[in-house]
Amino acid sequence: MAFIIRQISYTADGREIVRPKSVEKRMIVLGRSADSDIHLPDLNIAPEHARLDRLDDRRVRVVASGGLDFEIDGRPTSRTEVDVTKGAELGFGGHLLTFSREMGDIVIAVRRVEALSDASEEKNEAEVFSLSKVLPSRRIMAWGGVVAILLAFLIVPIISHAFASKDDRKIDQVIGDKSWSSGKLSQAHHQLEGNCEACHQQAFVSVRDSACVSCHTSVHDHAPANRMGPARRDPGLGGAVLAGFAKFFGKEGEGSCVSCHTEHEGAGAMQPTAQAFCVDCHGTLDERLINTKLQNASDFGTDHPQFRPAVMVTPGVHPTFQRVSLDNRPQDNSGLKFPHKLHLSGTNGVARMVQTMRGEFGWGNALVCKDCHTPTPDGVRFQPVSMEKNCQMCHSLGFEQIGGTLRTLRHGEPKQVIADIRAYYRSTGPVRPDFSGMARRRPGDYTQAQTQATFAMAAANRPGTADAAIRAVFSQGGACFDCHQVTPPRAGADWGIVPVKQTMRYMQKGWFSHDPHRTETCQSCHKADASNSSTDLLLPGIAVCRDCHLGEASNSDVPSSCALCHSYHADDGAPWTTRDRVARGKPGTNTAAGGRSTGSK
Fold first, then answer.
1. CA 81, CA 63: separation in Å to the nearest integer?
2. 18 near 6, Cβ under 8 Å?
3. How many alpha carbons fall within 13 Å on the CB side of residue 237?
4. Alpha helices (H) in 59-155, listed in sequence order
5. Model pTM?
6. Of 335, 441, 485, 519, which one is least surrounded by beta carbons within 10 A?
7. How far is Cα 98 from Cα 27, in angstroms, rounded to an integer?
8. Region of residue 412 (left: phi > 0; alpha: psi -120 to 50; beta: else)
């Protein structure tokens, strides 16, 4: 047997709604508490007002909690027994309980009687515990809140801005304007904290480009305006609507600074531009700029052309450069003759020479890359290799020792070399030096004893005239010929050397730093130990980079967006910028005068 509890309510038109539930218990609880078996939402009812205990299949004992009572047939009592076969009505606050019996179950019908208690309404209970009777209405409070917000965060800042001093040195003048900030400034602009007017120069107007370039005076355009406009993809209907809203609020059009650079994103480094910003133009660039030489690129891992470094085609005082894809195996003519494989061998004569000198210079059993290539202080690139720092310990230009001083030919000054040889031959003395083959001699060869023997042999076997000695220096086997490109004498000119120009930046359209890659070995990217010619371009192709770097949304070791390697604005090291062309005097030159590259970032 079970208790069948039927909660009875009425619709607005008087129709009865019955919600029955069955409770398989011998004893049930009646009260205002929500977890009561018979829940009566009435303030006249205690949370646990009474207990109903089934004695047998027809009798129910009802006992109120201490100090409480209820009504039976209109009479108050705290305890009674109900014979469900005869029926009975119990009153609890504004509710009536009627007992009956059906199919062996005891049925309790619960009805709300509004006339018995005003507190019987659930809405009355909410009113008793609320402040609705002492506060203004919700509508008035809502409008009051709107007015308060507008006053505190709009009207006050506007009035404060209107009366603020125009002196840029006085900051934090506008009251309440910080409440409009969407976040902290990035590390690059943290010094502008409290000086909103430095960028937001007009009220209710987006940051203008003029505010940006007032500080960033050296920023270059990404490309000429007449090329960038047609290159942009059609924004479509949605983009046009957004552009209309942006224009309404004073934002400048496509290509403005704020369309790429977003501030107030946090106090760390400014977030790099998303790859999608670049892809809008470069993903299908050839569809709009049919005469462009740039290839489409939308993702480094899946849609990016092979690298096209700027290689030196013709060396000299004014070298010429050409961008060639690495797929075409380009050659880089620096004017220097240098086989890497010969110098990196571990078994040839170079290695044996290194082994005899390793105590003096800290070398190992063979030369390695770091013995000649020294990183720049910032770790981005490597310093130019020089004769004085990296070569002359093995390749001496000494030709005579006077006392304890070794006389040498002037490296990098062919006219001075010729003058020194002619001056030497004008001096008296039977012995003449051997100027051929000096490029392979070591400084140790020129001890006092060896000098006399060498010069005596030279006097017997070598030409004794200055012209013959000069020809020996600049010809095959001579001090200059084996490492440099020599220009023979011609009308009005003497022997000469093609100036060596070391290219320090091949990837003119991209950015690369060796510092983050210092955990890798040189040979993992540059196959110098297999190169027999200095014209070999020892740059890794895109496939090597993709071992670690893939697109922005990839799961690679280093997810790489466009901004990782490319800068939207041309930097000072790029030879296509106006300032660079003027400074160097020739388009495309990326090495400094005298054969030493500046290696600009």
1. 9
2. yes
3. 0
4. 122-128, 138-150
5. 0.61
6. 519
7. 17
8. left
